[in-house]
Design a protein that fits this description.
Blueprint (H helix, E strand, L loop, with lengths): L1 E9 L3 H19 L2 E6 L4 H7 L5 H8 L3 E6 L18 H11 L4 E7 L12 H4 L4 E7 L9 E6 L2 E6 L5 H16 L4 E6 L5 H14 L6 E6 H10 L6 E4 L1 H13 L8 E5 L5 E5 L16 H13 L4 H16 L2 E2 L15 E2 L2 H10 L2
Parallel strand pairs: 1-2, 1-3, 3-12, 5-10, 8-9, 8-10, 13-14
Antiparallel strand pairs: 4-5, 4-11, 6-7, 11-12
Helix pairs in contact: 1-10, 1-12, 6-7, 8-9, 10-11, 11-12
The chain binds nicotinamide-adenine-dinucleotide.
Length: 366
């Protein structure tokens, strides 16, 4: 297969971790006989420094022509970086929003998986997570409350703020399809999360999700109210396979789910449109506090590359092989500093490695 991948190394630790993801992708390509052509574009602070804006139209054009985009992360320290002393629409994060909007990336997929070797980092009690958990949150990304009309004005002398939450049937249907398609590649269970007891948008959500479910008879569907879901995530995370939900609920629940895995440096994500195209990136940010030190954990970027193989190229074996290589390297005791155990009894069993070594070890296991 021939792939045309655009890389956006970005800012902070972005370039360091994208380099390791490319190392692993190249090893996969070599083993399975694929050809990968890479092209780099600038986004975020790196683009501001050169062009005075966080993402140029030319860069968007290049990204659009690719089969998929591998993104490191963008942004800097908001209190010290000059990138935050300019107009909000010219700051690094505006580049990311422009990319999502222009490429119509309406579906955000964020897995939350507890590695046996990293159970110590999980803040939940051992008896709750002794069997681990493995879920993915499929979140609507371009509709709902964050994209509705908003205003703040005085009404009858009282300052009043208004945000609107609206969803069309079409918007719900396309994310529901992504949710069910994702479940078909996993354990075939969808938990659709809403607030049907209060919101009209949730009542439409539930109706459309049930309609889409009829096309996926192999997938079991359950509905859950969002407040109950927030509780169930910490009470019994193992029950979840695919959590399908709207924009704001997904924003909150996906951070809760990543928190219980114990390490942000391990978590990949994918943002997809209605073609096979996607932008794949770590769930964390550019970590300016550790940038340039060579100590960042590259696993989130490497697993993002695995998601790219699975969702944009349907290469399940190759994606699975990367995930297995990550597990093997962890089980052999290699850790970057962010996942190094606090528990002193484990010292000596584990070995601390830098970004480059972690990438090379994973590539060597392929
Ligand atoms: P962050 O995720 O960058 O960092 C939070 C903490 O996690 C830091 O201590 C950092 O060192 C650590 N961390 C994150 N990724 C790590 C990794 N791979 N290995 C080891 N440790 C890691 O969050 P923040 O500090 O709130 O944000 C920093 C910048 O990143 C901001 O400018 C923010 O806007 C931006 N950001 C970008 C994205 C994106 O590009 N999609 C997402 C979130 C935040």
């Amino acid at each position: 297969m021939n792939f045309n991948i655009v890389c956006i190394p970005g800012d902070g630790i972005g370039p360091e971790i994208v380099a390791e993801a490319k190392k692993v992708l190249n090893k996969i390509a070599e083993k399975y006989g694929h050809n990968i052509a890479y092209k780099d574009i600038l986004m975020g602070g790196a683009s501001i420094d050169v062009y005075g804006e966080p993402l140029t139209d030319e860069a968007i054009k290049v990204a659009k022509a690719a089969d998929a985009v591998l993104l490191g992360s963008i942004g800097g320290n908001a209190s010290t970086s000059p990138w935050y002393r300019i107009a909000p629409e010219l700051r690094p994060e505006a580049g990311l929003l422009k990319l999502r909007k222009t490429l119509n990336l309406f579906a955000n997929l964020r897995p939350a998986y507890l590695y046996e070797e990293l159970q110590e980092a999980c803040p939940l009690r051992e008896n709750v997570v002794s069997d681990g958990f493995d879920m993915i949150i499929v979140r609507e990304l371009t509709g709902g409350l964050y994209f509705g009309e908003r205003s703040t004005r005085e009404i009858n002398g009282i300052l009043t703020a208004l945000d609107t939450l609206s969803y069309t049937e079409k918007e719900i249907r396309r994310i529901a399809v992504k949710g069910f398609e994702t479940a078909m590649k996993r354990r075939k269970k969808v938990t659709s999360v809403d607030k049907v007891n209060v919101l009209d948008s949730s009542r439409l959500w539930r109706k459309v999700v049930e309609d889409v479910a009829r096309d996926y008879p192999e997938v079991s569907l359950e509905h859950m109210i969002v407040d109950n879901c927030a509780m169930q995530l910490v009470k019994n995370p193992k029950q979840f396979d695919v959590i399908l939900t709207e924009n704001m609920f997904g924003d909150i629940l996906s951070d809760e789910a990543s928190m219980i895995t114990g390490s942000i440096g391990m978590l990949p994500s994918a943002s997809l449109n209605d073609t096979k195209f996607g932008v794949y990136e770590p769930s964390g940010g550019s970590a300016p506090d550790i940038a340039g030190k060579g100590i960042a954990n590259p696993i989130a970027a490497i697993l993002s590359a695995a998601m790219m193989l699975r969702y944009s190229f349907d290469l399940e074996n190759e994606a699975g092989e990367i995930e297995t290589a990550v597990k093997q390297v962890l089980s052999e005791g290699y850790r970057t500093v962010d996942i190094f155990p606090q528990d002193k009894s484990q010292y000596g069993v584990v070995k601390q490695v830098d970004t480059e070594t972690m990438g090379s070890l994973i590539a060597e296991h392929i």
